[in-house]
C-alpha cells in the first residue's frame, strides 16, 4: 500500500537522495526536488509489462464494439483521421494530468496522489484567489468520476438488453419483448450482483468477464474480416453535421483516464509510464490502431446497417455468432458490477457519516438499489445503444478525460511557468474549445436524434 497522504497539508519530510525524474534538480517552486518515486512503499508493485496490460484493458472494452457505428457517422476517411485525433488528444490529457500530479507530489512532498487528490492540491497550492475552491473542485472531480461510471453502466444495461433480445428473438420469434422490457427484467439481477461490496470478491467475475470479452472479440473479427463489401458500397465521408456523434462515441470508447493514476501509482518503475516509448504512448498507439481497424472494417462489412454494438449484426442462426452474443452479455453483466464499485465507494464515503453505524448496512443496500435503478431508468429512457453512448460520451467522459486535466494543468502552471509566449495557455484554450465542441454538439446531436427516433 502507498504511504498515507494527508489531504489537508503538505508538511515537508526529511530530505532524501534523489534520482532522475521528469522534474529537474530544482523543481518549479525553486526548492530542492523531493522525488516521490523514492518514497512509494507499494506492497505488490506492478511491472512495466503488467501496467501496460492494465492500461490496455481499461481502454479496450465494450466501446470497441461500438466503433463501426461511430464510423457510420463520418465515413471511412474522416473516421480514421478522427480516431487518430481523439487518440492524440486523449493521450495528451493523460500526460498532462500525470505530469501535474508528479509535480504537485514533489511540491507537497508526498509519494503519490489519486485523480481527485491531484485536482484538490493543485487548487489548494495554486493562485491565491482559487485556493478556497479546492474542496469544491475535489467534489466536482469525485462526482464527475461517479458520473462516468454511472453513465457507463447505463450503456452496459442497453448492451445486455440488446444482446438478450437478439438471442431470445431467435429462439422464440413468436413472442418477443422490447429492449425497454429487457432492461426492466435486468433490474433485480443487477441489484443482487451490485450488493457485493468488497473488491476481492469481484476478482472471479473480472476474470470471467475478461475471458468472455476476449473470445467475443475473436469471434467478431472472424465474421467482420470475411466477405467484406466493396469500398464503393460505403461512404468515404459523411455530412459534417453527423460528426459530433462520432467524436462523443470515440471519446466514450477510448477514454480510460479514471484508472490512469492507480496504474501509475502502483508501478514498480513509474519512470517508464511517460516518455517515449513509455507505457502510455505504446498503449494509446495500439488502442488507436485497433479502434480504427475495427471501426473501418466493421463499417465496410455492414455499411449503414451497422448497429450500436457490432455483435448485434452477427448472424442469428449460427452457433458461433450466438455464442459471441451470449458471452458479450455475460461479460458486460459482470463488468457492470465492477464499474459500479467506484461510484458506490465515492458516494458512500460522502453520506455514511450522516447516519448512525447501526444503519450503515441498510444504508448501503438502499444506496446500491437506488443507483442501479437510476442506471436502468436512464437505459429505459434512451433505449438506443448508439445514441446513449453518444450522450454519455459527450457529457461525462469528455468532462473527466478532457475538461478536468486541461483546467488542472492551467491552474497549476498559472503562477509558475506557462512556457514561452505562454504556449501552455494557448494550447489549453484550443483543447478547451475542442471539449466545448464535443460537449455542445455531441449533446445536441444525440438529443436531437433521440427526439426524432422516440417522439
Can you tell me about this structure?
- It is found in: Membrane.
- It is a multi-pass membrane protein.
- The chain crosses the membrane at residues 140-163, 175-194, 201-225, 245-261, 273-299, 319-338, 359-381, 387-408, 429-447.
- This is Proton-coupled amino acid transporter 4.
- Its main location: membrane.
- It is globular and about 70 Å long.
- The protein is built from 14 helices and no strands.
- The protein has a single domain, classed as Amino acid/polyamine transporter I (Up-down Bundle).
- α3 (76-108) crosses α4, α5 (134-171) runs antiparallel to α11 (319-351) and α5 crosses α12 (360-381).
- 65% of the residues lie in helices and 0% in strands.
- With 455 residues, it is mainly α.
Question: Approximately how much helix is present in the residues?
Answer: 55-70%
End-to-end Cα distance, whole Å, is 52 Å
Based on the structure given, which CATH architecture is correct?
Up-down Bundle
Q: Any low-confidence stretches, pLDDT <50, length ≥5?
A: 1-9, 11-30
Give the strand tally.
0
- From N to C, what is the helix and strand string? HHHHHHHHHHHHHH
| Estimated radius of gyration | 23 Å
What proportion of the residues form beta strands (DSSP E)?
Answer: under 5%
Structural class: mainly alpha
Helical stretch count?
Answer: 14
Membrane topology: Multi-pass membrane protein
GO molecular function: L-amino acid transmembrane transporter activity
Domain Amino acid transporter transmembrane: 44-447
Pfam families: Aa_trans
